[in-house]
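Quick start: what a row looks like.
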Amino acid sequence: MGLTSFGIGETPYIKQATFSIWQSKEAMKEFAYKMHQHKEIIQTTRKENWYSEDMFVRFKPLKTLGTIKGSDPLAGKL
């Protein structure tokens, strides 16, 4: 299960990235590789060449500053 997800980018809807925070690596892999709807979207993005480039990276948050929509989704989880 994802804790939060939001789009970021220099030009929304044109050059956008999705930033997601997950409960665990296992939860992220379950979504990315086993969810039927997600697999279909990935196939469509490749078939229709939606992106000029892509990059998938994993980071482990060390601390948080500020909030997202008024709350810290990682409060008590680091």
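That is the whole record. DSSP finds two helices and two strands in the chain. The longest helix spans residues 36-47.
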